[in-house]
Amino acid sequence: MFPGTFSMQWHITNDCDQRCKHCYIFNSSNAPSICKWNLDNAIQLLDSYLNFCEKYRKNPNIALTGGDPLLHPNFWEIIQEIKNRNIPFVILGNPFHVSKNEANALVDAGCWCYQVSIDGLRKTHDAMRKPGSFDATIKWLRAAQEWDLRTSVMTTVSRLNYEQIPAIAKLAIELGVNVYAFARYCPTHGDTDSNISPLEYRIFLEKMWCFYEDNVDKGTTFAFKDHLWKALMLEKGILSTEDDDVIYDGCHCGFTHITFLENGDAYACRRMESKVGHFPEDSVEEIFFGKKMQEYRNIEQIEGCNNCQLLRYCRGCRAVAYGTTGNFLSKDPQCWICAKSTENERAH
Q1: What is the pLDDT of residue 30?
Q2: Do 305 and 311 contact (CB within 8 A), yes or no?
């Protein structure tokens, strides 16, 4: 087992009052019906998850999301059950249903961060989400500072908005946001036109690295969420690697993470089709050590990563690879190390 934290991303409902263009739930002509966890099963899952963490000496951490988790009719009952078990948690949601009273209740329950999205400057963000969303999010982030609710801003990066990311990060600093991070867009229906080329992405990360260096003391923590940061750090001589069999970091699939969807399905990663079990038929322990989850631990089979010195530190994003090619073991399409390797192979 991997040491440290074992996290659970928990989609308690898929109900949402936005229809983001990059959403992997509603970005389809066959949108799913609204589904949610019933309270009894939710309590059983919490106990199964906590038992797993205690048995294997892992620190629990829940990311409660959806859809918008606050739209679940039993949201506050679920929050109370999490509080009763003393499990730290974050909320991945929208700013539209949290005012001062809700913020205070979340902080009291142990919520250590509330994440909202800014996916571009006003015109771009509102085009991806809905008119007025940008201004509403900015207003909410300012108010959250007065409520003592820690906030995080996440950006989904694609060709449509990557040139705006430095401005978004600067805005996050100005708003007093506690954490800023970005993750790449996962093509969901063969939409690879939004993919950035490996060289462009390398240049983009270098630009963001310089921005982070210039603003490291401004009060906002910059989270290095994308595993390809490891490739840049290796090139800069900041990261050194060990020649052993330990998994140090990288893609969490199969190692430090599990996702449960609103219908009880367990996924290795929500951003791709990766069903590994179903609750309550299977416990968290049975799912994690099951045959289907094991497929995501066969990292030596990942194309382009299997002979890379960063295999046990990075592995790119399996969801982006899956969304681009339909195979989670294919090369990460933005990895410039993989791209160079392919070019060398062609040259010979």
Answers
A1: 59
A2: yes
CA-nearest of 7, 1, 59 to 289 is 1
The CB density around residue 152, as the number of other CB atoms within 10 Å, is 23
How do strand 111-117 and strand 89-92 relate by DSSP bridges?
A: parallel
pLDDT means per 10 residues in the chain (348 residues)? 81 81 54 87 98 97 95 97 97 94 96 97 93 95 96 96 98 98 86 89 98 97 97 96 92 95 97 96 98 96 94 96 94 93 62
The burial class, CB within 10 Å (0-12 / 13-18 / 19+), for 318 is buried
Q: Six-digit token pair at 283?
A: 């416990």
Terminal CA-CA length for the chain: 40
* Chain Cα centroid distance, residue 158: 15
What is the residue whose two structure tokens read 């190390």? 337
Q: In 3-state terms, what secondary structure has residue 160?
A: coil
Identify which of 36, 40, 38, 58 has the alpha carbon closest to the alpha carbon of residue 49. 58
Q: Residue 169 and residue 155: Cα distance in Å, rounded?
A: 9
DSSP 56: T
**Residue 161 structure tokens:** 């908005």
Region of residue 219 (phi > 0: left; psi between -120 and 50: alpha; otherwise: beta):
left
What pLDDT score was predicted for residue 2?
A: 43
C-alpha to C-alpha distance for 315 and 9, rounded to whole angstroms: 20
User: What global pTM score does this model have?
Assistant: 0.92
CA triplet 74, 49, 274: central angle to 5 degrees? 90
Question: Can you tell me the distance from the alpha carbon of 127 to that of 125, in angstroms, rounded to the nearest whole number?
Answer: 5
Q: Is the dihedral of CA 237, 238, 240, 241 positive or negative?
A: negative
Residue 328's pLDDT is what? Answer: 95
Half-sphere exposure in the Cβ direction for 104 (13 Å, CA): 4
Q: Is 38 exposed, middle or buried (0-12, 13-18, 19+ CB in 10 A)?
A: exposed
